[in-house]
User: Fold these one by one.
Assistant:
Number 1:
Amino acid sequence: MTRPVPRRRPRPRAALVGGLALAAAALAAPAHAAPSVTAVTLGTPASVEVGAEITVTVAATGAVDLYAYDLAVAYDPARVALVDDSVVTPDGGFADVTDDDAGTVAVAQTRLGTSPGLEGDVTLATLTFTAVADGVATFTVPAATLVGTDSAIVTLTDAATGTTTVTTTAAPPTDEPTDGPSDPADDGGTPTPGDDGASDPSSSPTGSGSTGPLATTGASVAWFAGAALLAVVVGVGILLARRRAATR
């Protein structure tokens, strides 16, 4: 495939293609019928994300004696931008590309010398764009001029159209926690053991038949209370005995 160097300033494109075709016609063998194509198609991807490349293919089906052509590809400059030096045309000829930066790319291509015209299904141009904004990007071929080996010219209008939906890249999910059930102790729910004496088994009174650490603690307290009482009684008895001895 021929990759032409884009030119920014307008050029008399029809004159260029016609002049080359006319020069070739003088060297060509017998005249041919007027050039023709069954259809011109414009292929685009269904959708891309912002920042991705869009490959646009302009093709002709059923081409007959297509020695040269000049076509325009219109695009939406608010949503796509042409990638520099990305336009490719068929091998075996000379090509010229002009992008006006306002939404139109003009592509001219011609065979050289006594080369025969293109026949059958032919890719006329492949263009690469970059998606720059979301929305529906529309591409059209509003006009095309076909030139045969005998300089016969056929002009096509509104030859093809295609669209690509440009979408914005989805934002990645964040790691922020979502609202969930709060701590039961903070919203008046069921208290945890130990927060309230009534709900803590260790703070509940034990019955006479209780066993375990609490029952042992109760018995120890009763023993110390009895011993203290006995000590008081003995002390009082000793004190009374001393008083009686003193009075005798």
Number 2:
Amino acid sequence: MAVDFRNQTTLITGASSGLGALFARRLAARGSGLVLVARRTGRLESLAAELPGVNVTTIGMDLAQPGAGAKLAAAIAERGIDVTSLINNAGFGTHGVFHEADPQRITDEITLNVTSLTEITRAFIDPLRAHGGGVLVNVASIAGFAPSPTLAVYAASKAYVLSFTEALWAESRGTGLRVMALCPGATETEFFDVAGQGADGGTSRMRADTVVDLTMRALDRRNPPPSLITGTRNRIMMGASRLAGRRVTLAALGVMMRQTVRR
């Protein structure tokens, strides 16, 4: 049974581009009100102008700052908005060997990918469970299934998101809230403008709209899975890595990713 988003309000972080903006368009088309959050307020306002017929609130905020999760929850409460669905999409990666990474950049990455996501989820999960007809999607990555040399912090942060979200899936069963960790592979978004072009390991990238459409289709199932790997090729790769074992997988990933650093 398809999720009924009419009379719902969905909070989307990282909504100014990529998957976040596409989720906003898909959900608006299905009648959901929206709270769109990102640093780039101009882009948020432009996106909101494209979505007539639904109530859209934009909030400019850098979620990589300490305490941003609590600050966002307070800002939404001040506006009297009742959030019934949540898509935690904000995040970024750093590509390169760990010992050469900028320490502040690492801190910001962990704050955004892990701390703020957790704080935001905690702030809204009680009303989401009480509503019982919405969704909670935390955007992880196939990088969360195996350690990734030259993406060490990013992969570790997404492993946290994957484990955390699957646990919430189990805890939320019977409430009506559909919880899922979205695990795309390399996708055509601005992620690589930040992380660096070699961060895809030279693999082909999936269209962002395909990732969003597959996610919406999975959420419409009667019993959505705790996590979704988008794309047959990505599912095969993750299955093969589990069969190969940690040592072989790390060796193969190490060769592939270090080649992209040398380019």
Number 3:
Amino acid sequence: MDEFESIRRYWLPLGEPPCDGLVRGIGDDCSELSIPPGQNLLQSIDTLVSGTHFPADIHPVDLGWRAMAVSASDLAACGAKPWNVLLALTLPTPDQSWLAGFARGLGESSRLYGLPVVGGDTTRGPLTITLQVQGLCPPGQSLTRSGARPGDLICVSGTLGDAGEALRWLGSPGSSAAAVSAVCQRFLRPTPRLSLGMALRQKATACIDVSDGLLADLGHILAASQVGANLDLAALPLSQPLKTLAGTRALELGLTAGDDYELCFTWPERAGNPDQLCRDGIPISVIGVIESQPGVRFSNPPDGWEAPKNLGYQHFTA
């Protein structure tokens, strides 16, 4: 099967239903879209490399789902409504079984999150997946990292650390424990908090998705906003499966492990209880407060606890 047959068989169906404003989709050198009136275009691009961002033996259906979900999470962090996506796929071989599974997972998440594929490219080489997502937001309403102010509450959605613990268990033969299944599902099928992101427009003062670890990603907000933070360690939302599997390591995973794709945002205290933002049954936890003094401080540490030296994942560092 050649490149063009793979496009016809696997990628053309992912353009349905088409997004609003689509003039031309897959089949020309460029896709062409008309941006709806009264909307700004938000774009983000993510590259996932086998062995770096996902295990080489991950099931292709899960990989397709995960690739779309982690890319959509950037739209959630900016409060954007999903619009469409471009796909660039590099494959060692055109394995039809693998392609069918990957296209199935990608298509399921594409339809769920409202991100039809409008174009892309397929090449030969080491397995690499690049998705460029595009979203829409009214002018002046997108979320950024730079608006946090002293006194703002620091909030996160869902729970943290599960996907980091999953890396110990993915591919483990014979493991059928419910806790293992729960954390592995958080890695394989992350959920971008798109409805929450849109609900935070003109309310949250800053926002980011937790992809590299809470401390690392909150650090981006602190740097962009030129503020500091005090985190209440007793308030960090850790799931029971994580506590069961990780024990005393659970807190460090909650602070430093990536791949959870929850939203971390700052909320002006005068705006009331952020629980009002709960979407799809996903809880919101207040885990700290923004302070004027730079740096991060910790409240209510457990006995004998030491602050982690590793603040989260970074490319090109040991």
Number 4:
Amino acid sequence: MSTDPQLSAAVDTARAAADGAADAGAVGDHLRVVEDDERLVSHHFACLVPGYVGWYWSVSVSRAPDSDVVTINDVVLLPGDDAIIAPPWTPYRERIRPGDLSPGDVLPPDEDDVRLVPAWSAGDGEEQTPDRFFAREVGLGREWVLSLEGREMAADRWQEGDQGPDAPIAQQAAGVCHSCGFMVSLAGPLSKRFGVCANGMANDDGRVVSFDHGCGAHSGARLSRSASAQKLPLPVFDTLTLDEVDGL
């Protein structure tokens, strides 16, 4: 499809339309002509607006068959290949991170959240009884509990996080949390891998820790002391002994 010569030559008409739609001095040099369809082209002009480097003005023009009248369709400001544009929109739920919630904020779970199942279908350890469905009907106990997927997701998150075995503080710890007297046991399936730290002087006080996590505040930690007096190196500048002077 060949470019319509009359529309391609309508640079001044397109520029006048761009100048009328933009602020004074915002339209720069003519960049190109783009054939959009039969008797429909777009004239592109450089954008001189500060902060819009790489953007361009696009003026769409057309004409009717057997007509010499050039019609302006629209004038838009578009980003080019090198333009700085905003990142793709991310829903608020995907942007939230632990610690973002403030007092009064509400973050309900999704209706199809795989982490939760009705309490009557999967109990928490010893909570699984034949009366779970009846308990839900009369309003006893929790309506929802963690699903198997929810438990595994929590376990993986805790194991790989700062309270897991790969944390720098755990790598240099003399003992692990499983043997620490300050560890409080959990109940349910997760109790086989995790506990809660109850040492008020530890970094993880009140947090869930994996059994193979550890820190220097372990209940069995002891300070090591040398049995003999430490021999100090010779001073670089001796200010304690008297200087010996020949003849005195």
